[in-house]
Amino acid sequence: MKKKKLFIIFGVIIILIIIGIVITIIFQGRNEEKVEKELFDDIFLNLVDNNYKYFYYMYGDIQIDDGYIEENGTTYYHVNDEKIMSLEDFDELVNNTFVDAMLVNLLEVDEKNQYINVNGEVYVNKLENPCTSISEYDFDNLRFKGDNEKKYVYYEQIRTEMYNEDGIWKLGYSIYRCNN
Q1: Helices 87-97 and 2-59: crossing angle, nearest 10°?
Q2: pLDDT for the residue 30
Q3: Less packed terminus of the chain by CB within 10 Å, N or C?
Q4: Collapsed DSSP state (helix, strand, coil) of residue 129
Q5: What is the maximal distance between C-alpha atoms in the chain?
Q6: How far apart are CA 89 and CA 94, in angstroms?
Q7: Contact, 53 vs 96, CB < 8 A?
């Protein structure tokens, strides 16, 4: 009888240990998924912020003041807009935000703001009809699917892609559009 009780107690202890291990594995997996989602949330939101800066720089209604320079028959106005960065910073931002295959499509467009740098000051020849209303999105409920090379990102009713290019996550294209 004592052996039977010991065997039952030992069996219950083994079952409790197994249940504890299973619960620990489940919670650990959920925590890893949560940490990974938070990491990809941060990466994507940074890319989106950079994408917005790219779009504003290229097509936005850049704030200017009275200063101007003429070069090759084109008038460039002095930029008085804190959102605008140096040409070098813009190039770095674009290179770190979009996949290499898209850079020519994103930069070599005819209708865009044209910039020059003179004595450390940025000047712009703005589009004839610059964008005054850039699309806005809600990124509160981001979802990610994919692998270590490509992630599909879902927000609102939209899907976009992020690609791992040489260890850096980048967007495949610009998500922003002009609403005017």
Answers
A1: 140
A2: 56
A3: N
A4: coil
A5: 105
A6: 9
A7: no
Taking only the tens place, the pLDDT of each residue in 53-89 is 999 999 999 999 999 999 999 999 999 998 888 889 9
Give which of 81, 77, 91, 82 is closest to 125, Cα–Cα: 77
Question: What pLDDT, in 10s, does the model give residues 147-156?
Answer: 999 999 999 9
Are 151 and 161 within 8 A, CB to CB?
yes
Res. 25 pLDDT band, cuts 50 70 90: low
Q: Which residue has the tokens 């990974």?
A: 36
Half-sphere exposure of 20 (CA within 13 A, CB side): 6
Left, alpha or beta for 152 (phi > 0: left; psi -120 to 50: alpha)? beta
Say how far apart CA 104 and CA 100 lie, in whole Å.
Answer: 8
Q: Could you tell me if 68 and 76 are in contact, meaning their C-beta atoms sit under 8 angstroms apart?
A: yes
**φ and ψ of 179, to 5 deg:** -95, -5
pTM: 0.80
* Residue from 143, 81, 149 nearest 115 by CA: 81
| Tokens 């807009």 sit on residue | 81
Amino acid occupying residue 176: Y
